[in-house]
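input
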Amino acid sequence: MPRNKLFLVFFIWYFFCSAFVAFASTSRYGGSLVLATSSDPKTFNDIVATDANSSTVTSLIFEGLTTADPFTLKVIPNLAQSWTISSGGLTWTFHLREDVKWSDGVDFTADDVVFTFNDLIYNPDIPSSSKDVLTIHGKPLKVEKIDKYTVRFTLPVKFAPFLRSLSQSILPKHCLVQAVQQKKFSFTWGMDTPPGEIIGTGPFMLSEYHPGERLVFKRNPYYWKKSAQGAALPYLDKIIYLIIPDSQAQLLKFMDGELDATSVSGSDYPLLKPLETKKNFHIYEAGADYDSNFVTFNQNPGVNPQTHHPFIDPVKLSWFMNPEFRRAVAHAIDKKRIIEIINNGFGQPQISAMSPSSGFFYNPDVTVYDYNLDEARAILKKAGFKYQNSNQTLEDAQGHPVEFNLYTADSGTTGREQMAAIISSDLERVGMKVNLVPVEFNTLVNKLMSSFDWDMVMIGLTGGVEPHFGQNVWASKGGLHLWNPHQAKPATAWEARIDEIYDQGAQELDENKRRGLYDEFQRIVADQLPVIYTVLSTDMYAVRNKFGNLKPTVNGGAFHNIEEIYIVRS
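output
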């Protein structure tokens, strides 16, 4: 073929392919995603936000230097494109992306990173929960600008979770420096702020807020991420959050077509599953939840400074501090029954302090307490307890009937009160008298954190991938060390060992050595049972069959890749 004809054929082929890619990309743009949130956010200021609803909003607007891969859980670059480590793990140099702009068109630079850490997070006048996580051995990180797109962090000691903690949102200096100088930052970007004034680097920006009704986000025209074909992201024009406090009302809105997605509980599954085809949606089962539900006993030996009485009856304290008593209780809880009754079969017994969804740091090789009433009774008898009235009433060695209160929150939305009722019934089968006492959530928190006036509690905590971020629960001096908080020194040898593990684990940069430490931590918790875990729910999402690039995971939810999701055109 002559050279000019060959060139012409190549040119036509290239033009056709380019046009096809462009058409395929542009056809993905437009449309809205309608979701629900249970309440109004408390703030649009991500530094001072502490509630989940505020974080849901701010996660669309702000980003950190790093993020976690939702499939592998590994830390990957985000606003930082790369980093290097030197000085034995104490000095980290981050190279920022040079193609990032704030949603008002201003360049994102090292000044914004330095400002976020030095002027916001470490500012003593600003209440920031990130300050605790990013303060190591009582010292802040040293954060310095090297050049426009390079930042250096110097740590006081090695800190293995450091890289994961840099998912911390970065905020714009040019928008907020004046509020800091005027000592008004803590009240900046509140609920009365005009949406256009809230500036981020994320895929969306707030465009409307109608309190008690809805939040509307529009695409950020300056967003830096591109598709694999080089197309600008995000694809969607809008994300709309309807504010619907009641979970059943959210479900009805979804079934009526007013919502594009909703979380699905095990109890809702039989109602929704038969409607998948008719209502044009699909239920995704993502995996085991991170959030735990457990019971724990009050082992606080302290005295109330106002009343000068012990926080807990010394007779009960002697039971609760006995690990054999706790092991008997663990054998008496019918976790499979909880899964069937509350979760409709969706879920699994929780055996370890980490969820299986945590991946690398999850240790399944721990002591497991199968439901076995005979074993529970045998353990109690060996520990000195005895039965009266034909094995119906359990007493301790001194003849005290084993009776105590089980507190839980009366919210009714998590199934926790129903779970506590099942556990009460289970324990009565081994002779214990358990008085179930549902209380308002704030009252329960006061008992746990202030008055310490409780016997046994049914409660839950959020979990995650990184064990160190649970230090406030597991460190003996931690405020969430619920069974005996704020210890001046570890009350037991095993608590002292967990303190050592968390200190060593925070500074161990070898991932396999870290895993060995946290494997030991999970074995200790399973053996000593300071908390007795119940079940992990299955995370499930119902989503309309109209979205492309949908890749739900338990780690990121249904829309973790929100910038890539588009509406499929028929």
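quick obs: Confidence is low (pLDDT under 50) at residues 1-24.
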